Amino acid sequence: MKLTFRSKLVLSFLVVVLFTGFIGTLVGERLISGGIIQQAQEKVRVDLNSAREIYQSQLDQVKDVVRFTADRFFINSSLLSKEIELNKDELKNIRARENLDIFTVSDKNGNVIFRTRNPTVFGDSQAQDEVVSFVISKNEIIASTVIISREELLKEGDDLAERAHINIIHTPRAKPRPESEELSGMMIKAAAPILNHDGNLLGVLYGGRLLNRNYDIVDKVKETVYQGQVYEGKDIGTATIFQGDLRISTNVKREDGSRAIGTRVSEEVYDQVLVKGLPWIERAFVVNDWYYTAYEPIKNIRGDIIGILYVGILEEKFVDLRWRTLWLFLGITFVGIIIAATISYFLASRVVQPIKHLVLASKRIAGGDLGHRVRLKAKDEIRDLGDAFNFMAASLNERDEQLKEQATQTIMKSERLATIGQLAAGVAHEINNPLGGILSYSHLVLEDTDTEDPRKQNLEKIVIQATRCREIVKGLLDFARQTEPEMSLGDINDMLREALALVEKQAQFHNIEVIKHIDPNPIQVMVDPSQIQQVLINIIMNAAESMAGRGELVLETKKTDGDQALVKITDTGTGIPEDNIEKLFDPFFTTKEVGSGTGLGLAVSYGIVERHKGSIEVSSEVGLGTTFIISLPLYKG
């Protein structure tokens, strides 16, 4: 399909806009997407710090309740008097007021004296409990997250064991797990020593809050950090406490809207946090949606990883933001394309208009109107092009005038040559035979005349002039006939040597030094050897005559890169004036004295070379000499 120059310009503009728009959109989308992801990851990192602080505050709260109660006078006196039951109502009130799930007193050996939640069970030993044993051995208060077995939970109350019991729900992307239920529970637990006035250990007071199905911490994180924000009907932020890889407290929702208790963490997070003990701050699949998440391990008093603390921001909001940004960029690009197309159309029109003028002017000049010129108002490269066009048109006009003049001269010359040819033919028929008789009878009379006869000198002049007339007639016949060459393959080097051999024995060559630069390799040409030899002899003889029998004659042959054979003949003669060089090949033009030449030799030579599709060039400088260069086509085989 042929496109106009305007269309190509407009398309070029559009391609540039599309390319830059695409690159800009791609780079912008990458930068913004990267910025959004980085911002989201930084957000959840900060949110995880907030969640950790809230979790730690809950642990500290339990620790403070236990410490303050263990330091109170009534509990010391009760243990000293072994009448703890007198203060059981006070202990129950403290547990209820502080919202503790367990609040228990043991003796200094760890044997339970009184359980505020389940007073009927006592006397069992808690010496193997990691928190209680730490207080017994160190006499210091301790608080930590611990795993409580179902057996121990049952001692505190059936309701606690039931809260801890969680059926494991199949979760996409989770690591395979053989169990179908979890019976143990995870608790934040604190224990403090009960001391007498001397600082001796009387017993241990410990309390705790079971995290299973306790939503106080996760909901406080959600309200504090995310302030209940919702996107497309979904909570923006979520928080979870894991027991191992199992969600035991969470505000992540399942598809039915219920809390996702019993679901599990994805396998990649499992390996990173629970196995390697490293935080995970990255995109992750949570139950049934993608979130930007932050996970970190929860450890017990020994440093063992027993759970995970999690916060996450719904990815859907950021994905939609990225798409909106992308569409915004595409919209800007589309508007840019429309604006660019409009502007480029007008710009292309301004560029194309002067080009149209140039095209129209070119057609007029091609039609013969060489005087036509373009006029452009622009001051740019197009104006330069117009000036160059006008200069070209002027040059063509000037050359056309020159060609017309040359053609006129050539036609006149041709007509003159044709007239001369006709004249020569007539002279040949009308003069040649009588002239022959005159020469014959003159010779006979001259032979019969005595040497002392005064008429003998006049007879000799008659013979000389008649002979000159015969040479003129012969030259005219040669010029008029223009015999077609009889082509044969030959070596131009040999032809030059033979021509030189025919003339170099003449007296006028005795004081001429002949210098030969003849190509050592044969130079094959397809010519008429006799005619080419005639040309060479004519030019060599003219060179000798121009030197008056003294000087240097340089003969050179060579091949050119343009498949031509060159014969160069240079003399050190008087030279030819510049005005006469153009007339050298005209019939009857000669610079020799009257009676010394016919002026037909070079004209005949020029015709011979031209019929061989060659050329003769002349360069000369008065007083220094003349150079003739004969060029003939090489034989190509």
SSE blueprint:
Elements: H1 5-70, H2 73-81, H3 88-97, E1 102-107, E2 112-115, H4 130-138, E3 142-148, H5 150-156, H6 158-164, E4 166-167, E5 181-182, E6 185-195, E7 201-210, H7 216-226, E8 230-231, E9 234-235, E10 237-243, E11 246-250, H8 267-275, E12 280-286, E13 289-299, E14 305-314, H9 315-366, H10 381-448, H11 456-481, E15 488-491, H12 492-503, E16 512-517, E17 524-527, H13 529-546, E18 551-559, E19 564-571, H14 578-581, H15 601-611, E20 615-621, E21 625-633
Parallel strand pairs: 16-18
Antiparallel strand pairs: 1-2, 1-7, 3-6, 4-5, 6-7, 8-9, 10-11, 10-14, 12-13, 13-14, 15-17, 18-19, 19-21, 20-21
Structure write-up:
With 637 residues, this protein is of the alpha+beta class. It folds into 3 domains: 1-351, LuxQ periplasmic domain, N-terminal subdomain (Beta-Lactamase, 2-Layer Sandwich), CATH 3.30.450; 370-481, Orthogonal Bundle (Helix Hairpins), CATH 1.10.287.130; 483-633, Histidine kinase-like ATPase, C-terminal domain (Heat Shock Protein 90, 2-Layer Sandwich), CATH 3.30.565. Helices cover 50% and strands 21% of the residues. It contains 15 helices and 21 strands. The strands form 6 sheets. A 5-stranded antiparallel sheet has the order 2-1-7-6-3, with helices on both faces. The protein has a 5-stranded antiparallel sheet with strand order 11-10-14-13-12, sandwiched between helices. A 5-stranded mixed sheet has the order 16-18-19-21-20, covered by helices on one side. A hairpin with a 2-residue loop joins strand 10 and strand 11 (246-250). Helix 1 packs across helix 7 (216-226), helix 1 packs antiparallel against helix 9 (315-366) and helix 10 (381-448) runs antiparallel to helix 11. The longest helix has 68 residues, at 381-448. The radius of gyration is 62 Å and the shape is rod-shaped. The mean pLDDT is 83.
